[in-house]
């Protein structure tokens, strides 16, 4: 696992975008990108939009797969992840909407919707690079604590903590859906590269647990320790509980040239 500590969230976003651009450049004409919703990846989307505008990354034929969708919200609800991905990813990056997929949380048969989503990812050739945020309880996607480390796209129940964390997007806690359809930890692990971004003190404990704690379903993001190409990019506040922070800084400062990702 590579850990990159940045002075602020804007730098987190630029580092993540640079890493994604590096993978995309090597992936061929139809790269497959995995994207997340929430606040954490917004700085990365802003930086990616800049790279697109400068012609330094070509996403015109990219396939894009979101991690998750609420169950119980109409797909045209402003806080549905269909609409969130359209506003924060598809439009700013100038993507082809027909190539941007979000799990169908409104499907009558959610089990089948999960199977279909896995099949769509496989048909696109698998995810080249997956961008992730992390919940304050360590979830990635909406794989809440005790999710199977081998899980695939399926229905999950959100924890009260996650619903409280996401209440800011709704008028009240009652309006935050209780269920979601989310890629599994096994699905996420299949991505060829994974980039996790986190900023702020509220993520410090989760970052410590998933980077330096044991691999455990209690901190689902810790499964990334089993991934051969996982990069964790955090700001100083999110890094504040890492015991080996000085080592990560020293490693980054002394990377051999061929390993450097340059913005
Ligand atoms: C969203 C997702 C979640 C979020 C996490 C952090 O698609 O999969 O794992 O990344 O809940 O959310 P923010 O970034 O809003 O703190």
Beta-strand proportion: 15-25%
CATH fold name: Rossmann fold
Order of helices and strands: EHEHEEHEHEEHEHEHEH
Shape: globular
Number of helices: 8
State the CATH class: Alpha Beta
Strand order of the largest sheet: 1-10-9-6-2-3-5
CATH architecture: 3-Layer(aba) Sandwich
Keywords:
alpha/beta; Rossmann fold; three-stranded antiparallel β-sheet; 33% helix; binds fructose -6-phosphate
Q: How do the helices and strands line up, and which of them pair or pack?
A:
Blueprint: E1 2-6, H1 9-27, E2 32-35, H2 42-53, E3 63-66, E4 68-71, H3 81-90, E5 100-101, H4 110-123, E6 129-132, E7 154-157, H5 160-166, E8 179-182, H6 185-190, E9 193-198, H7 204-212, E10 230-235, H8 245-253
Parallel strand pairs: 1-10, 2-3, 2-6, 3-5, 6-9, 9-10
Antiparallel strand pairs: 4-8, 7-8
Helix pairs in contact: 1-2
Concise account of the structure shown:
By secondary structure, the protein is α/β, with parallel strands linked by helices. The protein has a single domain (2-254), classed as Rossmann fold (3-Layer(aba) Sandwich).
Describe this entry's structure for a reader.
Helices cover 33% and strands 16% of the residues. It is globular, with a radius of gyration of 17 Å. The longest helix is centred in the N-terminal third of the chain and has 19 residues, at 9-27. It has 263 residues and is α/β, with parallel strands linked by helices. The chain has helices at residues 9-27, 42-53, 81-90, 110-123, 160-166, 185-190, 204-212, 245-253; strands at residues 2-6, 32-35, 63-66, 68-71, 100-101, 129-132, 154-157, 179-182, 193-198, 230-235. The chain has one domain: Rossmann fold, CATH 3.40.50. The strands form 2 sheets. Strands 1-10-9-6-2-3-5 form a 7-stranded parallel beta sheet, sandwiched between helices. The mean pLDDT is 96. The structure holds fructose -6-phosphate.
